[in-house]
Amino acid sequence: MNELIIFNIGRDVRNMDNIKLIDITADNWEEICCLHPGKEGAEFVAPNAFSIAQSVYEKGWIIKGIAKDNTLVGFTMFGYSKEMEAYELCRFMIAQRYQGLGYGAEALKVIVDSMFIHFKCKEIYLSTAPNNSRGKHIYEKFGFVSTGETCGDEDDIEEIYCLKS
Question: For the residues of 65-131, what is the DSSP string, one character each?
């Protein structure tokens, strides 16, 4: 598997040796597209196939599989959002069968550290639905703070969160 090199920039990274961000390739794209966050999670995150296609046509997004040891457990998409004019963690999902095992928290650490190092940014933004209590809990526990701002249209309003390095 191809891997994104991960650096520790001061966060607790114990027991993360086995969580890695991997390239999406001809060998694994179908498996990544088939990862599903479950009924509750599907309400809050676009299908992985849609995100992969979006990354082709909207330049600036980086897409990666999330692997624990050699098993694909999730997907992420991040990069510079022209719409937000900021670095954004646009997609983050852990497949339903791997939820509740701590992989989400571990993967979030790897993704955020990678973004701070790769982009040399000082802030990372994300947006989530107001009723995504599980996601908001993970983000807030990690240090993301609500900006008090929202984005989207009236049928799809999302709250904006920010993490500073």
Answer: EEEETTEEEEEEEEEEETTTTEEEEEEEEE-GGGTTSSHHHHHHHHHHHHHHHHH--SEEEEEE-TT
